[in-house]
## 1
Amino acid sequence: MHYFDYAATTPLREEAASVFVSVSQQHFGNTTSLHDAGGAAQNILAYSRNNLSKMLGVRPEGLYFTSGGTESNSLALLSLAQSAKKKRSTYHSFSGRTSFPSFSSSLS
């Protein structure tokens, strides 16, 4: 698993910001919608997922885009728990007072 986060302070390169603004303005459809705007957005998402998965050396279907740390932590913990359940193994997780709140709340 790869986790890319700077504690919500990741600097954004100018090139990335430019592409983000352009794509957001031109392809704003919901990727799960049936209309043309949704289909165009879904195509861009699939293209991006395939390219990024090749760069990272992972399978595209195992690459998830999340809205931030809380969603990422919840997804990671849920995935670990489901994997342990499938393997019928014991899964233990620990959290301390200094843990990120979303991590601690996902464990409860």
## 2
Amino acid sequence: MRILQVKPVQVTLKEIIYLVTSGNITSHSQVGVSNGSGTVYFDYKVVDRSAATDATPADFGTVELQYYTDDCTTWVTVLTIDATNYVVANTCATMMTVISAASLPTGSDVKLQVANTCNVEDYYFYVDNFNATQVVSNSPN
């Protein structure tokens, strides 16, 4: 299995979100690595800035998992976290999605992004254990 892994790290977008009400976490471009569909999963949590331990209400805003294959011309959203599916908790929840082979042509460059837009200010958005995987099309001998 080929694993494209953005270094697992807890990322705080507090300053960006607090000042401009949005912020993105973007991976490095993975050049020519796509061999079709891929699976992306990550842990996240949204907590109040004041205590950094209290879960933020479901109307915090939106988080979108996006990718591109055309040098950042068009970001495509494959997963949205919003009031309909947000897990209100002060611990991490896991999200997972599959990007179809029709969307990731073989040999294309791929870049992933977690885009955050807030409806309310003063919260921390955390991402951890971010992984994107593809099944190897030709196994080694």
## 3
Amino acid sequence: MKKKIVVPIFTGILIALLFIFAPSQTQVSAQDSEESIQSTQTKTITKTEVYGLNKPVKSSIPYNVAGWSGTLYLVNTQSTGDHILATYRGTVHCSGICGMVSELDADEQN
């Protein structure tokens, strides 16, 4: 009689443990995959800054727009007669959820 009671109780405990631990392992795997996808998101940004003739041109500038961040480095300067146009380029990385930003939007936000 004792064996008939112990087996269903033991089986019930095993099934309960499967329901408790199986979803948490799936959740951890999904989080790991999501982090690895986010950490590999990069894109190259080119941005032009306008400087006055008497203003120093920076060799690099920070970039932080819509979750994309990094450093842009000076690749070209051009004088218009009234101003200096400095072109910067660099690879930026996504930190978290990143939006799509056009070049015009990026210039307005920096």
